[in-house]
Write a structure and sequence with these properties.
About 35% of the residues lie in helices and about 20% in strands. The two termini are about 40 Å apart. The chain is globular, with a radius of gyration of 25 Å. The chain folds into 2 domains: about 10-170, Creatinase/prolidase N-terminal domain (Creatine Amidinohydrolase, Chain A, domain 1), CATH 3.40.350.10; about 175-445, Creatinase/methionine aminopeptidase superfamily (Creatine Amidinohydrolase, Alpha-Beta Complex). It has helices at about 10-20, 50-55, 85-90, 95-100, 115-120, 135-150, 165-175, 180-200, 210-220, 285-305, 310-325, 335-340, 435-445, and strands spanning about 25-30, 35-40, 40, 65, 75-80, 105-110, 125-130, 160-165, 225, 230-235, 255-260, 265, 270, 270-275, 365-370, 375-380, 390, 395, 410-415, 415-420, 425-430. The chain has about 450 residues and is an alpha+beta fold. Bound molecules: glycine (GLY) and manganese (II) ion (MN) (2 copies). The site of one manganese (II) ion (MN) has 4 residues, from loops.
Amino acid sequence: MRKPADNMEIFSRRRRLLAEKAKGAAIVIPSHPEMIRNNDVHHPYRQDTNLFYLTGWEEPESVFVFRPGQTPETVMFVRAKDMERETWDGFRYGPEGCEREFRIDKTYLINDFDKEIADLLKSTDRVYYRFGIDKEFDAKFLSSLETVRRAHGRSGRGNMPLLDSWELIGELRAIKTADDLELMRRAGKVTAQAHIDVMKATKPGVTEKQLLGVFLGSIYRQNADREGYGSIVASGANACTLHYTFNDQTCRDGDLLLIDAGAEVRYYTGDITRTYPVNGKFTAPQRKVYDRVLEIQKELCATSKPGVLFKSLQDRTIDFLTDAMIDLKLIKVSRSEAIERLLFKKYYPHGVSHYLGMDVHDTGLYQTATASDGAQALQSRKLEPGIAFTIEPGLYIPADDKDAPEELRGIGIRIEDDVVVTATGIENLTIDAPKEVADLESLLR
Ligand code: GLY
Ligand code: MN
Ligand code: MN
């Protein structure tokens, strides 16, 4: 495990924001479980996003308990120091190291969780916890709540209110602070540079896996921590498989390459997609599709600003791309009929955007209740400063689509940037990755 983050203040500032929303409560967050890959090999470990967000702590087998306004306010259960295990698996901070380096008020050994947790919860008036991430820990946690209730004796009181921490912390994470944005800008820049490096390595005969290697080499050279999600390196008709992750084909002369990949920097990820010709020159049919996707992508970048309904991005994209499908002779009915019958979904089956941050599909509410009707009448959220999201329209024409003009079959195009809402519009975090035809062709040449 690495040394603690250079600036532990980031984590205290985030905890202060959370404390304002959760006075009197306790928030309990276990570390992410370790996952077996095969036999006795584990997947590389990545901490639970919320736990890292609030503490910077990256060791498994830990639990963070946050009790805003109480003493101790921050409590962490961690693994013991163990020279033998550390010889095999690497350094552990142990309770003292965690307290000192991560500025945690009080630490305990993880093996003492059952013994200590009831005491820590009994003076709080509600508990926030997220079920479903670690089933084994869920059971342990439920039984600790039972212990708290029993400790009240014959008081007639029931269990204390148990609430989902997902929304509480998710909404905090949804509005990016200056600290968050600094990291997101870095993730955007590193990701854009890696896409440029892949463009330079793209040529007929290169394999998708070799290009993935170029991407990974570039992000690690730039000190990224890892990919933010499984990279998609899809040449030709593979681009029409939205979650194509085999990445095991050879790029052919005349095909397009679609690459959707992002670098993770201090748990913030970029998420860029670019599509361009393997041989450096778009064909006329490829241009016809590319230009339409680029046009709506740029329009959404230009019109997104505070007050715009999040849902309107998708509505506008469907209108625009359905018109494009009609012009391209993919659909032979009117726009309204194509939308009514969801015919556009054959060529544009996904959403145009999602929130972006520490998780590639980041937390945050997409809908809010109207003041008058409460939760019964949810409406799309409006964009507000600090919300970060992707803009990623696409058109995908299956290779075996007999309804499509032959020259368009097997063309799959997506163009994706990462943006954050400012006071008056958006800041494009991935502007460095070329997407104009002339820029792509000159770089690829
Ligand atoms: N790369 C995942 C996405 O674009 O949603
Ligand atoms: Mn995306
Ligand atoms: Mn993507």
